[in-house]
């Protein structure tokens, strides 16, 4: 009983800390909180060291690490900025520029981690809109909404989808076949919402000069070509059925073989704190599952009807906005096996946990990246500015996505 209460206390404290992002009176971030929680699961005897090590899903970490290296190489070579700039440069009026931002962000985010896409595209959107004397806010909002919506489409679109892809065993192509239509519709809704609620910005559809960058971006063409070839190869391997973790880590390893880029530049692109966060949360979730997920709890969860897509969507959205989407997925994992159709349940969780990020400004890291980088340039996107568009667009996207998966 003491271990049960210890597990409850550690689980609640860890997830509350991860949700808030800090602990009172301590300089500690989410990754540190997760690591401390994992250590306390060991110290309290809830888990043995062997159990804790087995709880860490190395396939998910390998997938995430491999994709970080691939995305980092694309960014370092200048490919992202070159490709996004080329698309934006072809926009000749405000609605077309908005469409270019949405399409580019969604396409990149569908296959590559959406946080990195926002990191690269936010400065480009700011630079372009300022040079054209346009209001940057609607375009930045569209960037955040489209990057989240686009990342619904595949297993590699965001970290929570990676966990789901590995845990569920759903083939990459099957995952994309089920959720790519949801992603496309969510992007169209985001585009329409921004266009309507900021219609003063888009009322004047008169042509303006080319919207490309003021000066050509710095691009290492050989490295960009190499990164693009490897990325296409990795994505092709995903669709051909190669295990996603294996394909990603092999692609990342291939990109480390270079004479032009110093290794530390690659390593700087690897988000070690995110890997640490995942490892810690795997252990904390395993401790809570061992101590708390009893047959009675599983029976009650089954009686609640998590097999119903609408109920599961609602629960996932609430949890994702309380504790963030990655912890929400880990919390729901023990209960998915109880439903009649686990694969559909995983797809519902992937869709709902990702789209839930568009509900509020603090709902996803991608939103915060856009807002923070804009703030540094004197552009303010506050909670209500985002909620004015995000709330309605997200609820509509969730409703249509749930109806699609239920059907």
Descriptive notes:
- By secondary structure, this protein is an all-alpha fold.
- The chain has one domain.
- 76% of the residues lie in helices and 0% in strands.
- It is built from 21 helices and no strands.
- Helix 1 packs antiparallel against helix 2.
- The relative contact order is 0.16.
- The mean pLDDT is 87.
User: What is the general shape?
Assistant: globular
Cα gyration radius (Å): 21 Å
Tally of DSSP β-strands = 0
Instruction: Extract low-pLDDT stretches.
Output: none
N→C terminal distance: 44 Å
Helix content: over 70%
Reading the helices and strands in chain order gives: HHHHHHHHHHHHHHHHHHHHH
Can I get a quick summary?
The chain has 407 residues and is mostly helical. Helix content is 76%, strand content 0%.
List the helices and strands and how they pair.
Elements: H1 2-20, H2 30-43, H3 49-55, H4 58-77, H5 79-89, H6 94-111, H7 114-131, H8 136-150, H9 159-168, H10 172-197, H11 199-202, H12 221-239, H13 244-256, H14 263-269, H15 272-292, H16 295-304, H17 309-323, H18 325-336, H19 342-355, H20 365-376, H21 383-406
